[in-house]
Design goal:
five-stranded parallel β-sheet, binds ligand PTJ, alpha/beta, about 270 residues
């Protein structure tokens, strides 16, 4: 049984180098206490869906990213919710996104422990983030509509937010936040998940690809008029985007099946 992280050398020319490096990053942060054991399993589920998508940001996801950028820019009080996997994979770029959109950052964990909150806070602080909500018990309040430990939110953060960005979410919180009248943006490679189906905007893409693209969109739209941004946000239809995603996956699988049939594997 290993109790410390042992770095594995990934050959740069390995055909799956990027994916293996992402795994290494998660495993490293599993041992640092940032990522929970279930976080490793959750990533595996994400990887499986990413395979079906061809491991690229497809057109409907790009539309969702554009709507997310516009919505973040017009929000009155946007908050970005960080869990273990998000901190391990994209801490630096999430901080850049928060700075560009004037969003607050709150640590909010499903497998909550104060120890993990502190380790994640330390990681974010090391990457340059000054103000981190969700850790100080003095500002803690409960959202009764949520049954999991995610119900504990910061009075200065998610509690006040009109828009909450909750990447890699686990289910009932999205529905509760939407019920409370908040806009919810999520990133989830599984277009069928409850979170994906109930968010205001669902970006079906790998978070490692999404955040840099979201930053690019925010930079592009930042100086546009509010009317223009509102138009992008208002004309966005999440159900249509999710349907398009499912259609794309089905189409890709059909094509792959035809290729396999041609090789007479069946
Ligand atoms: O750090 P904690 O304690 O808050 O726990 C975080 C996890 C992710 C373990 C927790 O929120 C959880 O259990 O989530 P679920 O229910 O497994 O849902 C996570 C969703 O994110 C799944 O639908 C995955 O397909 C998806 N996912 C996993 N990795 C990625 C991803 N989506 C985008 N990019 C990824 N890299």
């Amino acid at each position: 049984m290993f109790t410390t992280f042992k770095k594995h050398k990934i050959p740069v020319n390995h055909p799956r180098a990027e994916s293996l490096l992402t795994r290494e990053q998660l495993i490293k942060h599993f041992f640092s206490g940032v990522v929970t054991s279930a976080g490793l399993i959750a990533h595996g589920r994400g990887e499986a869906f990413d395979y079906l998508l061809g491991e690229k940001t497809v057109a409907p996801a790009k539309k969702a990213i554009r709507a997310a950028a516009a919505s973040l820019l017009i929000a009155n009080y946007p908050v970005i919710s960080i869990n273990g996997n998000v901190a391990a994979l994209v801490a630096k770029s999430i901080i850049e996104l928060a700075q560009l959109t004037n969003a607050k950052v709150e640590v909010n964990l499903f497998y909550r422990s104060h120890q993990r909150e502190l380790v994640i806070k330390k990681l974010l602080a090391k990457e340059g983030l000054k103000e981190i909500y969700g850790v100080d018990r003095a500002y803690r309040t409960k959202i009764p509509e949520i049954s999991s430990d995610r119900r504990w939110v910061d009075l200065r953060g998610i509690y006040l937010a009109d828009l909450v960005f909750v990447p890699l979410e686990d289910g009932d919180r999205t529905q509760a936040l939407v019920k409370l009248g908040k806009k919810v943006i999520t990133v989830d490679l599984n277009p069928l998940s409850r979170t994906a189906q109930s968010a205001t905007i669902t970006i079906v893409d790998n978070i490692t690809r999404t955040i840099p693209k979201l930053i690019d969109q925010v930079r592009l739209l930042k100086n546009r008029k509010r009317d223009y941004l509102e138009h992008i946000a208002n004309e966005y239809n999440n159900q249509q985007i999710l349907n398009d995603m499912i259609y794309l996956i089905t189409k890709r699988l059909n094509r792959l099946t035809q290729q396999v049939k041609k090789k007479n594997v069946f």
